[in-house]
Amino acid sequence: MNFRRGLGREEPDINLIPMIDVLLVILIFLMVTTTFTRFAEIKINLPTAEASRPVERPNEVQVAVDPEGHYVVNRNKVPFSSVESFAEELRRAAAGLNEPVVVINADAKATHQSVIHVMEAARIAGLSRITFATQGPPK
Q1: At a CB cut-off of 8 Å and minimum separation 6, what does 90 contact?
Q2: CA angle 96, 121, 104 (to 5 degrees)
Q3: Is residue 20 part of a domain?
Q4: Which one-letter DSSP state was computed for residue 81?
Q5: Any idea what the CATH number is for the domain that residue 125 is in?
Q6: Residue 110 covered by a domain
Q7: If 125 and its partner were Cys, which of 23, 58, 90, 135 is the partner (CB 3.0–4.6 Å)?
Q8: Contacts made by residues 80-86, CB under 8 angstroms, sequence distance 24+
Q9: Structural domains in the chain (count)
Q10: What angle do CA 78, 88, 132 make, to 5 degrees?
Q11: What pLDDT was estimated at residue 69?
């Protein structure tokens, strides 16, 4: 027996107005609580100095890289066959030095990969202190 014959089914509906109100309140809250910082824009003029050429330090391992990919370690040309063999050359050059620093003198036109080879060889050789040499602008 169907006792609900005369009653129509009501379709459930979702009222979106309260949900929109809540989202607007959240948006306003986020806009009010967000801090907008502007970095101070100041003009800085760094000091300049004329210095004499620094004295060669005894705990440095000088590595030079030219544009053709030739390597020189402490003024001795070293053939590059693999990173491991170059790491052995760096170990020999750093033998007996206290906390040696690898100074990479790469030509501006040297490939990025040749500099990465030096850095990887220094890592394999256990030389963790690496720096790059630059030169000032021509006078």
Answers
A1: 61, 63, 73, 102, 121, 122, 125, 127
A2: 80
A3: no
A4: S
A5: 3.30.420.270
A6: yes
A7: 90
A8: 80/117, 83/117, 83/120, 83/121, 83/124, 84/121, 84/124, 86/117, 86/118, 86/121
A9: 1
A10: 65
A11: 83
CA distance 75 to 28: 67
User: What H or E segment, with its residue span, contains residue 77?
Assistant: strand 76-78
Residue 34 has pLDDT above 70, yes or no: yes
Mean pLDDT, residues 20-40: 81
Is 18 domain-assigned? no
Q: From CA 128, how far away is CA 84, in angstroms rounded?
A: 16
Read off the pLDDT of residues 36-61 as tens digits, 9 standing for 90 and up: 655 544 454 545 656 566 666 678 88
Please check whether residue 106 is in contact with residue 62, taking contact to mean a CB–CB distance below 8 angstroms. no
In a domain, 40, yes or no: no
CA 112 to centroid of chain Cα atoms: 14
Range of the domain at 65: 60-132
CB 101 within 8 A of CB 61: yes
Q: Is 114:69 a contact under the CB 8 Å cutoff? A: yes
The pTM assigned to this predicted structure is: 0.57
Residue position matching structure tokens 């004295």: 55
pLDDT tens per residue across span 101-111: 998 888 888 88
